[in-house]
Design a protein that fits this description.
globular; single chain; Aminopeptidase; 4 helices; six-stranded mixed beta sheet; alpha+beta
Amino acid sequence: MATLESVKLHRVTHDDLDQVVEIDQLSFDECVTRGIVDHLLDQNDTVGAWLDDQLLGFVMYRRGFHYSGNDDESDHSLIHVSRLAVHPSTRHRGIGRLLVDHVRRAATIEKRQVVMSVWTDDTSIGPVCFWQRSALWSSVSPGRFHFTSC
């Protein structure tokens, strides 16, 4: 892979669905269908890290966090990261950090906090370690719903 400076961030669209689905399926244990990923693109702002026309990773986020699924109860002071994935062949090269930093900058400009939720029974897994290293993780307890915040 070229240097991190060669990587460009820009919006992911439905035209990029094949690449998003591929990375998503390589990154998460649960099987998410093409239709679900397509729906997530409608519901979230999605930014990708690109090297030329190749998607290296993406972050999906939305303003407001729906604790109960009811928009009336949404906390609009938050930006919720719903998905972050980096292609396995480009992990550990700063792509995830680049995507998180993008969301952090948006949150700073908008005077919001960033939250991320993770379900896990194993606190040693890669995503948990990534969030701990990025200094966004507030607590780790197996099997619970966790938030990160900056």
